[in-house]
């Protein structure tokens, strides 16, 4: 069984920063590709950033240069550092673990960017 527990969301003004965390309860966390997705009201869930077992990363064009995905395998934790936040970044952010045949999801954490 896989459990993903997210934290770090909240209200931040435009231009501000937040760091999201995702604690994973799974053996050998280090071997799994991980990702952050987000979903704004009325929109489809979209990939924000992904990181593989070798820490190779990729980002959505909309967040490239502003967000950084990273992982701490010793803590079984995934991070998303979000800088220069914009109102359009407002969404529920979800942690994702990519197993061989299944994706696993966290409960989501709300990020609201507003003055």
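^ structure tokens above, recovered residues below v
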């Amino acid at each position: 069984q896989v459990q993903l527990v997210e934290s770090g969301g909240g209200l931040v003004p435009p231009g501000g920063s937040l760091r999201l965390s995702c604690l994973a309860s799974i053996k050998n966390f280090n071997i799994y590709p991980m990702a952050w997705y987000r979903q704004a009201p009325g929109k489809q869930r979209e990939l924000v950033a992904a990181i593989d077992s070798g820490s190779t990363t990729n980002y959505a064009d909309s967040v490239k240069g502003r967000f950084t995905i990273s992982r701490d395998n010793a803590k079984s934790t995934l991070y998303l550092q979000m800088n220069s936040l914009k109102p359009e970044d407002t969404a529920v952010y979800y942690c994702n673990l990519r197993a061989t045949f299944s994706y696993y999801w966290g409960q989501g954490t709300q990020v609201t960017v507003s003055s």
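The mean pLDDT is 97.
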